[in-house]
Amino acid sequence: MTPRWITAVLDTDLPGGWAVARGPDGFLIDGNGPLFPREWLKRQDLSVLAEHGIGHLDGEPVYLLELDRAAHIEGCHWQGLRAFMLGDDHTLYKVLGYAAQIGTWAREHRFCGSCGQGMTQVPRERAMYCASCDLRNYPRISPSMIVLITRGDEVLLARSPRFVPGVYSTLAGFAEPGESAEDCLIREVREEVQVEVSNIQYVGSQCWPFPHSMMLGFHAEYAGGEIVPQADEIEDAQWFNVHHLPPLPASRSIARYLIDLYVARRLGHAEPVLPG
């Protein structure tokens, strides 16, 4: 079966196709969603920084209009990427998640980081080029480790002050240069709750609606130590029994998947599937 969404570098000189518009407030959306006829969208009064051909959805080309600022278009409004993640159309979320990554990367590389000269898009390649330095910049991915720590029927969950009130989740953090995924996981757990872990097992991955972020999901077993939440980062952290869990993250998130997977295995239930 042909995937509904396939990323690709498309020629912006070609006519037609669909387009999404992204600005500081998210994606432009109307009653039919965020996909607009490209030629119609380009005729609107939009402050376009750049246009990028990003792929094919159901065989149709899709383009991104990265905007300098939001604009008012009759019958339309702006919606953030997280709201699409919580919606029913996961394929649409993947399209917009990719568009957001490409738009952020291109916006941040309009000028060369070495000499300060303007950069140009490389035809037929996802790269920005500085002719003065002969330097190419490609979209980068920042790996983040996310881990569910378990102790028999208990799972260690924590909450950040930034979370929705009452919600607890798994621990996570970005990898530092030179770290392996396992090194990062062990360090982050020590920093955030001061416990030790063992038997680290990779579970799966998911792109996350933050710039450049790729979440690598793990399961680890508790190996020792008392929970001491990291000041300013962790508001609370506790062991929760799998029969009595607190409010949890959104069902489409890898954090929720790690929790649901362990609970299902512990209780003998059908295992969930991580949204692709």
Automatic annotation (TrEMBL):
One of its GO terms (molecular function) is manganese ion binding. HAMAP family: Nudix_NudC (MF_00297). PANTHER family: NAD-CAPPED RNA HYDROLASE NUDT12 (PTHR42904:SF6), NUDIX HYDROLASE, NUDC SUBFAMILY (PTHR42904). Belongs to the Nudix hydrolase family. NudC subfamily. A divalent metal cation 2 binds at E188. Its cofactor is Zn(2+); Mg(2+); Mn(2+). This is NAD-capped RNA hydrolase NudC. It holds the Pfam family NUDIX. Zn(2+) binds at C112, C115, C130, C133. A divalent metal cation 1 binds at A172, E192, E233. Residues 139-262 form the Nudix hydrolase domain. Transmembrane segments: none annotated. One of its GO terms (cellular component) is cytosol. Keywords: Hydrolase, Magnesium, Manganese, Metal-binding, NAD, Zinc. It catalyses: NADH + H2O = reduced beta-nicotinamide D-ribonucleotide + AMP + 2 H(+); NAD(+) + H2O = beta-nicotinamide D-ribonucleotide + AMP + 2 H(+); a 5'-end NAD(+)-phospho-ribonucleoside in mRNA + H2O = a 5'-end phospho-adenosine-phospho-ribonucleoside in mRNA + beta-nicotinamide D-ribonucleotide + 2 H(+). Homodimer. mRNA decapping enzyme that specifically removes the nicotinamide adenine dinucleotide (NAD) cap from a subset of mRNAs by hydrolyzing the diphosphate linkage to produce nicotinamide mononucleotide (NMN) and 5' monophosphate mRNA. The NAD-cap is present at the 5'-end of some mRNAs and stabilizes RNA against 5'-processing. Has preference for mRNAs with a 5'-end purine. Catalyzes the hydrolysis of a broad range of dinucleotide pyrophosphates. Substrate binds at R82, E125, Y138, Q206, C207, W208, P209, F210, P211, H212, S213, A255. Its EC number is 3.6.1.-, 3.6.1.22.
